[in-house]
Specification:
CATH architecture of the largest domain: 2-Layer Sandwich
Shape: elongated
Strand content: 15-25%
Family: Belongs to the xanthine dehydrogenase family.
Number of strands: 7
Number of helices: 8
Helix content: 25-40%
Structural class: alpha/beta
Organism: Graphocephala atropunctata
Cofactor: Mo-molybdopterin; [2Fe-2S] cluster
Pfam families: MoCoBD_1 (PF02738)
CATH class of the largest domain: Alpha Beta
Low-confidence stretches: none
GO molecular function: 2 iron, 2 sulfur cluster binding; iron ion binding; oxidoreductase activity
Number of domains: 2
Order of helices and strands: EEHEHEHEEHEHHHH
Largest sheet: 4 strands, mixed
Length: 225
Amino acid sequence: FTMETQTCYSEPSEDGLNVSASTQTPGTVHEAIGAALNVPLNSVNMSVRRCGGGYGGKLGKSGIVAVTCALAAHLLQRPVRLVMTIEENMAIVGKRAGCLYNYVAGVDDNGVIQKLQIDYYQDDGATKNDSIAAYSLHYLNNIYDTSTWSVNGYGVKTDLPSQTWCRSPGSTEAISAIETIMEHISRVVKKDPIEVKLANKLQDDSPITALMNDLKKSADFEMRV
């Protein structure tokens, strides 16, 4: 979940309403407030201070708090500040979506993948507001040759609260999944995980092989193992 919770401050002004929202999408929030209050957009003065701790969690869901806060200030004609507790934030805004990766791999004696089938499922919760299922497809390959892979990704609707984007949406889940698969393969073929990963690496001009070998040497990897 995100470190900093959703918050907003609104106050009446001589030409409408001043809204200071903690959001990564001020334009969207601006339009949402105008629609909810049924007022011209030029009567809503939006401002955003540095938005620390957003990490994607203050993209789509920040409007929930901003609209509520602006509506209260508009109806009461007095300043209103709304700050969620971490418990409220997790219940209403959600957190990083849970993911399930099912896979079947066929490898040779060196751990080189001959065939890999991956089916992954993302728990979107009750709505698909901030689905990352499609994003994971872009990161699952990581540094590897995917020519023998087949991947299917699904966003699943459940009866849980809707989830939200968190830091590195899609990439964190996908990279941890494929690295877990590589570690699993290395245990089965009884090979060094680094050897298995480099054996499956896409043959390109990436410096990752040299970097990994340098790291093994500087960290005395062989001796520590």
